[in-house]
């Protein structure tokens, strides 16, 4: 259960910036695509980008917290890609 | 008998062989001081044992069970990194709940040093406060072995004494490997002293050996141990 909570703590830092920028981008692209589809597509690509910027470049030391609870970098990246894809797809299907 | 057995560790960075067939073992009840000059590979060795850094060759087993992944080690080995590593955006009480089991979480939350911070986020703490928080988390965690990379760095003298007492208390049922340049405090609590030199390890029996092998200047004050 603590591992799931750890995954949540890791991911929550990515949600707000990804969502805000996705909404902004989608507003700019309303002429080209449906608003929610735009958010979904942007979210799928932006969350891994924010993961890279936040954890790989800005705070790489935070990985040690997650390593200590058993979450490797591979698991954390997989979590980001899978959850972002699911959330992005949900936006696209609404 | 439980034992952390680390053998045949080799690591090279470019042309430099940092670790050369390193062997080290640790049992619950032991506090191993890992000393060495800057760049001697102390932190590299701890990271390899922990599993966050790959080695050119390694063999690590706990209780006759070979272990490779961080997931396998989560209930066996915890590691205090050299720099602050707590997620900045999370409240201290949530960090404790995530890191420790219920019993140890209650112990930490009841600690006089931590009570004032429980409702704060990590980014509201000073560097020293973060450090004491990290040490409490790692030392209280429900694992058999704890690797501490510079635990005294950035801590006040009062906190250093508290940390030393905490390590001694928990060493009754855990094994510790500690590296820190504050050699007096490390020697004060250690049961075994290992010096890393030119990619190799030497077990130190006499204080004078630390001077002879060039780790300490000849004018260094002798401590009680080794």
From TrEMBL, chain B:
| Residue span(s) of domain ABC transporter | 4-223
Signal peptide coordinates? none
UniProt entry keywords in alphabetical sequence? ATP-binding, Nucleotide-binding
Query: What is any Pfam family matched here?
Result: ABC_tran
Please give the superkingdom of this protein's source: Bacteria
Name the Gene Ontology molecular function terms of this record: ATP binding; ATP hydrolysis activity
| Protein name, per record | ABC transporter ATP-binding protein
Q: Which organism is it from?
A: Arcticibacter svalbardensis MN12-7
């Amino acid at each position: 259960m603590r591992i799931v909570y750890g995954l949540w703590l890791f991911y929550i830092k990515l949600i707000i910036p990804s969502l805000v920028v996705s909404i902004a981008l989608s507003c700019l692209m309303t002429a080209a695509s449906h608003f929610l589809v735009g958010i979904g597509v942007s979210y799928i690509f932006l969350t891994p980008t924010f993961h890279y910027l936040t954890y790989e470049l800005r705070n790489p030391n935070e990985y040690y917290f997650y390593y200590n609870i058993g979450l490797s970098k591979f698991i954390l990246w997989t979590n980001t890609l899978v959850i972002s894809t699911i959330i992005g797809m949900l936006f696209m299907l609404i | 008998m439980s034992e952390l057995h680390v053998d045949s560790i080799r690591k090279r960075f470019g042309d430099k062989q940092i670790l050369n067939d390193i062997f080290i073992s640790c049992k619950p009840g032991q506090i191993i001081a890992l000393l060495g000059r800057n760049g001697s590979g102390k932190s590299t060795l701890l990271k390899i044992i922990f599993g966050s850094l790959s080695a050119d060759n390694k063999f690590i087993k706990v209780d006759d069970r070979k272990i490779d992944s961080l997931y396998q080690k989560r209930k066996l080995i915890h590691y205090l990194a050299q720099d602050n590593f707590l997620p900045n955006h999370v409240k201290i009480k949530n960090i404790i709940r995530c890191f420790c089991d219920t019993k140890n979480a209650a112990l930490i939350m009841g600690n006089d040093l931590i009570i004032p911070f429980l409702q704060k986020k990590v980014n509201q703490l000073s560097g020293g406060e973060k450090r004491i928080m990290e040490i409490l988390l790692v030392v209280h965690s429900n694992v058999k072995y704890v690797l501490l990379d510079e635990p005294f760095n950035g801590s006040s003298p009062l906190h250093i004494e508290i940390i030393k007492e905490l390590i001694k208390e928990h060493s009754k049922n855990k094994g510790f490997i500690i590296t820190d340049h504050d050699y007096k405090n490390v020697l004060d609590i250690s049961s075994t002293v290992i010096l890393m030199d030119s990619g190799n390890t030497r077990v130190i029996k006499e204080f004078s050996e630390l001077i002879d092998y060039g780790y300490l200047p000849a004018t260094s004050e002798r401590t009680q141990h080794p």
